Hints:
Layout: H1 9-36, H2 50-74, H3 77-87, H4 94-106
Amino acid sequence: MENTESLDLFTLIEVALEERNEAADAFDVFKQDAVMAHPPAPGDEPAITSDNAADAAAEEVDQFSAEVRGLLNTASDADLTNAYEQSGGEVGHPVAEALLSEIKRRGLGS
């Protein structure tokens, strides 16, 4: 990941959500590959081991989800509202939705 020290809250959440989505896509690919894989020849190892590859992808999804939660939980009220304004409040935009959820949780919306 790039140097995030100078990035604002909106961008940090946007990056973490994108990384989470990429990890989720990888997890889906691992599951699909495991279903599509031919059974190994007797005595051979399976070509795809969902036990380790899919688990690693799922862990990444959890890691990035936790990163987003951490960013939201530790952000100041002002940073949250500023980042939400930066998002344009677009319905369906993942960053805007995450920020709005935290704003509501804190009771900051009027």
